Amino acid sequence: xxxxxxxxxxxxxxxxxxxxxxxxxxxxxxxxxxxxxxxxxxxxxxxxxxxxxxxxxxxxxxxxxxxxxxxxxxxxxxxxxxxxxxxxxxxxxxxxxxxxxxxxxxxxxxxxxxxxxxxxxxxxxxxxxxxxxxxxxxxxxxxxxxxxxxxxxxxxxxxxxxxxxxxxxxxxxxxxxxxxxxxxxxxxxxxxxxxxxxxxxxxxxxxxxxxxxxxxxxxxxxxxxxxxxxxxxxx
Length: 235
Ligand SMILES: [Mg+2]
Hints:
This protein is α/β, with parallel strands linked by helices. 41% of the residues lie in helices and 11% in strands. It has 2 domains: 158 residues, Rossmann fold, CATH 3.40.50.1000; 56 residues, Orthogonal Bundle (DNA polymerase, domain 1), CATH 1.10.150. Helix 7 links the parallel strand 2 and strand 3. It is globular and about 55 Å long. The site of magnesium ion has 6 residues, from loops.
């Protein structure tokens, strides 16, 4: 990982006019761990749908996540579920762990051009999370899993759909993400790529296939502090 830079070079970002952000664990840090609640809700959904005990339900949930990119994609493919019901259940969480972050809002506002949220979650979830952070007003649009026809990142068709809908010129765009694999396509499209890493990286247990590999040349930058990184771009 030595090649990956932590401090933005001005020249890399001076022509960027479209700023694309993942939501979860990107616009708020990993340690907030909203996902623990979502994860629990998804397990509950699978458990009730298929009459499985929680341990078996969790195993199946993770297998679908691994094989299809999201638990939802696996449930739709194998069990024909109503995605809306699943998404509502998954995101029925308590957002109070997200505190207003005006400095982050200022840093996003200061970026020249348009700002987008590109999430495998829903618009409702993104609005609640970004609303709790007090940064929602700075975004031009939210592209969610429904807009993506339930095909999650990192599928290239989903990025294509997002880029063409918003006429994003990828040569002048940057992508911020916490999952390395979701930066492969953006880099191939010519975007600047920034990986958000947990501040307590060593303690964080990730699934092995989510981790960085040696073939990480699609990641330009890595940072644990989005606000500081954005402020540095505009310094
Ligand atoms: Mg994320």
